[in-house]
């Protein structure tokens, strides 16, 4: 009995923040979605979604990034703060909408995208016109800057002992909308370890407060 109890106690568990973890349902306040201004490119197709996968990035210096992937693969819930186990601190909550995903077929195209996100501005092809974003990271610099790189471990169930490892190369941009708030653009280059799979996700994000989430 004692050996069994110790084994269960020492089993690793996925981080949980604000009650959010894999196999839980999350609801975003409807007012937050309805108040998106007309010039926003963000699309949130539903208010309630179930978390089917969960990612964790240890950014160092006691900073952790937690990503919660819903059953609707067009959005992503992200929290940054503590480790979600011993430290439940929440520094930031972002709701991301996938604007586009590309699969570069050559090293030349991959390097060209990596070069483009080093620049001071970034342009998206909007539905009616070109939309420009200013670099949010390294915002005080007028020179090209290297993107941020980190590993993400993605689990698809609570007992996943071999989560996928994805190497991320990312840059964050922003533009001010008509309501005075920023719409964020994250260009995220992803390489799945051991598979050769590469993709580039273009995600548009809006910050949320804790009271705008319900579990």
Task: Let me know the largest β-sheet.
Answer: 8 strands, antiparallel, barrel
Q: How many helix segments? A: 3
Structural class: mainly beta
Radius of gyration: 18 Å
The CA-CA distance between the termini, in Å, is: 35 Å
Share of helix, binned: 10-25%
Mean pLDDT: 90
Helix/strand order, N-terminal first? HEHEEEEHEEEEEEE
Query: What is the molecular shape?
Result: globular
Count of individual beta strands: 12
Strand neighbour order, sheet with most strands: 2-3-4-5-11-10-9-8
Beta-strand portion reads over 45%
Question: In words, what does this structure look like?
Answer:
It is built from 3 helices and 12 strands. The protein is mainly β and 215 residues long. Strands 2-3-4-5-11-10-9-8 form an 8-stranded antiparallel β-barrel. Residues 4-8 have low confidence and may be disordered.
What's the structural blueprint in terms of helices and strands?
Elements: H1 2-10, E1 25-28, H2 30-34, E2 48-60, E3 63-70, E4 75-81, E5 90-102, H3 107-116, E6 121-125, E7 130-135, E8 148-155, E9 164-176, E10 182-192, E11 198-208, E12 213-214
Antiparallel strand pairs: 1-2, 1-12, 2-3, 2-8, 3-4, 4-5, 5-11, 6-7, 7-9, 8-9, 9-10, 10-11
């Amino acid at each position: 009995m004692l050996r069994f109890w110790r084994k269960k106690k020492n089993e690793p568990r996925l981080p949980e923040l604000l009650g959010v973890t894999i196999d839980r349902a999350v609801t975003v306040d409807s007012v937050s979605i309805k108040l998106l201004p007309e010039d926003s490119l963000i699309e949130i197709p539903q208010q309630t979604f179930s978390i089917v996968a969960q990612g964790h990035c240890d950014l160092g210096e006691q900073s952790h990034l937690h990503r919660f992937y819903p059953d609707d693969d067009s959005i992503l819930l992200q929290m940054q703060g503590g480790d979600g186990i011993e430290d439940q601190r929440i520094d930031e909550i972002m709701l991301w909408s996938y604007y586009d995903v590309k699969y570069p077929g050559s090293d030349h195209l991959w390097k060209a995208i990596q070069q483009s996100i080093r620049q001071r501005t970034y342009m998206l092809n909007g539905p009616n016109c070109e939309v420009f974003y200013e670099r949010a990271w390294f915002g005080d610099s007028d020179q090209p800057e290297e993107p941020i790189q980190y590993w993400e471990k993605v689990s698809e169930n609570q007992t996943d002992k071999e989560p996928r490892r994805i190497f991320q190369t990312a840059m964050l941009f922003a533009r001010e909308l008509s309501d005075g708030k920023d719409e964020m653009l994250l260009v995220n280059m992803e390489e799945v370890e051991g598979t050769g799979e590469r993709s580039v996700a273009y995600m548009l994000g809006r910050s949320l407060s804790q009271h705008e989430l319900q579990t």
